[in-house]
Design goal:
297 residues, alpha+beta, D-amino Acid Aminotransferase, Chain A, domain 1, 2 domains, seven-stranded antiparallel sheet, 8 helices
């Protein structure tokens, strides 16, 4: 993928537009009947936004999400309407350098207050819990699993959705039912596992293992739809298939690369986050670009 915008975009202050939320990565504008989502080049780790941007990251997130929305719409509808922003809203033409390639017009939805995580391999916090008690989010697993090993079947391990700067907390399925109700909980569980399974099989054919991922869902007139980003290096663990081996940690295409650097310099995971050196930022950008090229050709 060629990077269309050569400048790092950290904030998108669009004149005369209604900015309603600035998240860790995306800026959200109310366009009346729809929403405008702009993915910046910000990167977060351990719930803190880093002061260093990653060139091209916002474009990768947008284009990869659009790709997956199209590939999985047979499983569940999604919020994507268009990426032809200036054609739909001529008032945004003066901001084309900021929004080009990194923006989507989407449906307005009421987000569910849980994050829907699917794990296909045992890694990260799941591996830490398993070593202590043989479970992941209360789900009992068989004995003898190794780090990074593929699970027999993907598991659904939801979490709370924390405010920026706070930590999401893993919850069991019963707690998820208590938050959103049994019917919705069963629907998002089923959809999440179907989405993950289809994406995992597709990506593996392209040379990438999707170890785990996070989905978000919302309601539009009581219809459940897939929202936010989907199956990106920000919301998933992407591992190179050619380098995979159980029993150890894995190299990755995602922001685990940044997390590893922050750990190596002894950051205590409390804001403010440190700057990234130029070489780390450049390598991270290259990882994101390599991932989208492999997946979309």
């Amino acid at each position: 993928m060629d990077i269309e915008n050569k400048n790092i975009i950290l904030e998108t202050n669009l004149k005369n537009q209604n900015l309603i939320n600035r998240g860790k990565v995306r800026d959200l504008y109310d366009m009346g009947d729809t929403l405008l989502i702009i993915s910046s080049d910000r990167i977060s780790a351990y719930d803190s936004v880093l002061p260093t941007g990653i060139l091209g990251k916002g474009e990768v997130l947008t284009k990869l999400s659009k790709f997956w929305f199209s590939l999985t719409e047979d499983i569940v509808p999604n919020h994507f309407i268009s990426d032809k922003i200036t054609e739909q809203y001529s008032s945004l033409s003066e901001h084309v350098d900021v929004i080009k390639g990194r923006s989507m017009i989407v449906k307005k939805a009421k987000p569910l207050p849980v994050e829907c995580i699917v794990r296909g391999y045992i890694t990260g916090s799941g591996w830490s819990e398993y070593k202590k008690q043989g479970t992941i989010c209360g789900i009992q697993l068989k004995d003898g699993l190794e780090e990074s090993e593929k699970l027999d079947t993907p598991i659904f391990t939801p979490s709370t959705k924390a405010e920026q700067g706070e930590h999401d907390e893993n919850i069991d399925f019963e707690t998820c039912v208590g938050i959103i109700g049994e019917e919705l909980a069963n629907k998002v569980k089923d959809f999440s596992i179907q989405l993950y399974s289809k994406a995992h099989d597709y990506a593996k054919d392209k040379g990438i293992i999707i170890a785990d991922t996070k989905f978000e869902f919302g309601l539009v007139d009581d219809e459940l739809i897939l929202i936010d980003e989907v199956l990106t290096p920000d919301s998933s663990r992407f591992w190179p298939l050619a380098l995979y081996g159980k029993g150890r940690g894995q190299q990755s295409y995602d922001k685990q690369f940044v997390r590893d650097y922050l750990t190596s310099v002894g950051w205590d995971k409390k804001p403010p986050a440190p700057e990234l050196p130029d070489d780390i930022a450049k390598l991270t950008s290259e990882k994101y670009l390599e991932a989208i090229d492999l997946l979309t050709g």
